[in-house]
Structures are given as structure tokens and as C-alpha cells.
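Entry 14. Structure prediction run on the chain below.
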Amino acid sequence: MASNQYYFLDRWLIPHPIEQVWPHILHAQHYPVWWGEVYDEVKPLNDLGPGQIGARAAVVAHGRLPYRIRFVSEITRVEPPYKLGLSAKGDLTGTGLWTLEAHTDGTAITFEWIVAADKPIIRLFSPLIKPIFEWNHRWTMQKGEAALKRLMASAAQRKEPA
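Output returned:
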């Protein structure tokens, strides 16, 4: 694997049914609302909806480190409510796959992200500090899991009778 290539496999357990969790994974344009610690902007680039293959969006995101990542994502696979595949081109180039499974305790989510860091600063420093960039990714995913759990808990509370 080249020094600027990364493979990540992240797992979340969200204590809510898959039918309630799926829309939040599918609708990436809402990531800045609930995952704002990482996603600054997800702007649709065509008229296709988030559940359609070929839907494209411009993404601006950041982690704990002081830089922003910009890329265009494109939906490549949709199997509701189980799989959402995407490609990325820009500062990160590669593929991602969200996999959701109904679980006795809620929804098990796996995100597989295979990317090359093409942003010049990351590509330049990857050979030296790859573990720090990997840590930065783990930080972003921990923030995402916590944010989705908060969002789902808040929605569940609003539906409870007063």
C-alpha cells in the first residue's frame, strides 16, 4: 500500500431500529446538521435524490487536525436499508461502503473507506505521520457515532407521550 493510501473499517452500534437509522446515513446533505463536528458542507451537484445512483455532492469536512478535506462524492450503490456505496474524487479519492444490519440491540453499522489522500499536504506528509492521519479519521468517526446516537435519542424522546 502506498504511503498516501488508507483503509479504514469502522463499526458503530446505534440503539435504534434500522428503518429509523437508514435515512440519516442515506441523506448526506444533512450530515452537517447532526455531524457538524466533522461535516462543514454537503452540497448536491445534480438533481438526483440521495437514494439514486449517480447522485453527486460537493463535500467539505474536517477533523481534529487543522485542515479541510474537499471532495465530490457520488452514490454508486443503494440497497435500502442495508447498503450505501459511494465514490470520492478530490482531496480523497476512492470508495466507501456503509453497511447496516438489524441487530438485537439496534442497528450495527460498518463503514469501509478505501481512499488515497490526494490533498498535497496529506500526500506529502503521509510517509512520516500516517498514524496521526489515521488517528484523525478515528476521531471523526467517533464523533459521528456519538452524534448519531444523540440525534436518534432526541428523536425518540420527542415521540414519547408527555
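Helices lie at 18-26, 31-34, 120-159.
Filed with the rest of this week's runs.
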